[in-house]
Amino acid sequence: MKTITFNNRESSIIGMGTWRIGEGDLLKTQKEIEILKYGLNHGINVIDTAEMYGNGKAEKAVGRAIKNFDREKFQIISKFYPYHATPELIKESLEKSLKRLGTDYLDSYLLHWRGQTPLAETVAGLEAVKKEGLIRSWGVSNFSTDDMKELAAVPNGENCQINEDLYNLTSRGVEFSLLPYQKEHNIDFVGYSPFGSDNNDFLNLKDEVGDVAASKGISIFQLLLAWCIRSGEVLSIPKSSNPDHFVSNLQAIDVDFTADELELLDSIYPKPDHEEPLESI
Length: 281
Ligand SMILES: NC(=O)c1ccc[n+]([C@@H]2O[C@H](COP(=O)([O-])OP(=O)(O)OC[C@H]3O[C@@H](n4cnc5c(N)ncnc54)[C@H](OP(=O)(O)O)[C@@H]3O)[C@@H](O)[C@H]2O)c1
Known about the structure:
Elements: E1 3-6, E2 9-12, E3 16-17, H1 26-41, E4 46-48, H2 57-66, E5 75-80, H3 87-101, E6 108-111, H4 119-131, E7 138-141, H5 145-152, E8 162-166, H6 178-184, E9 188-192, H7 207-216, H8 220-228, E10 234-236, H9 243-252, H10 259-268
Parallel strand pairs: 3-4, 4-5, 5-6, 6-7, 7-8, 8-9, 9-10
Antiparallel strand pairs: 1-2
The site of NADP nicotinamide-adenine-dinucleotide phosphate has 28 residues, from helix 9.
């Protein structure tokens, strides 16, 4: 299975998204927990969650899923709201997340999106909880290249380890300057919503993509996921609560593309040739 160096560790090249899990009835949540456990048992060792997801319900479900796994063998990323981005509120949010997750540290803690709190204050808060050993690293989400540059200019801003943004075949604006910037500064890139989010609402797929998938003998979903991780430099975090979908997503990890196939996909969804406004969901 393809791997990636992520957060200074060797990791699976896909992680498990958790948005909208844990919000249904007991049986639905149990099924979602079983999928997370299946993933951990099959080499997927990154879980992406947030205090926002179901107002803590996703973190609670993750907490139940990880209970009997060796904590050192997988990574948990969680995120705090921009209106919890002061040092005091970061610590408070973090402690609540840790409690829901049933763990004593996060592998990374991200500012979910930019808000009103000055970045210098947020970074100071994150550095403080890192010093306490409550998080191993910190990062941001939904940051553009300009945001990343601004962040790098505040004290300790250069310690940012991760930026997590929307990335899929139909939303590839980050390729223009953000991915090269993060590579140059050794900041890991997490690409969210490889399938255009829930019910694929944010994906406008053209028919030709189906033809490429069919010619490779893979599903369109497998093509979409394999495409996101094709460079070996992006960690993609699909969410699935359906066992068949989940297994099919795992199979996508080892799908490769020929140069001709990539060129064909580029002709359907061209690489950005100028800076585009950052897209987000
Ligand atoms: N940082 C941020 O601001 C941010 C924003 C959005 C998302 N995220 C993170 O990224 C994760 C993934 O993004 P997402 O949840 O928005 O959506 P996504 O992973 O792009 O798509 C999820 C949707 O695709 C379906 N699906 C998954 N695999 C499939 C398959 N093989 N065949 C058919 N359908 C399939 C899922 O249904 P089933 O469950 O039925 O399979 C679900 O409806 C989130 O869960 C969250 O952790 C972060």
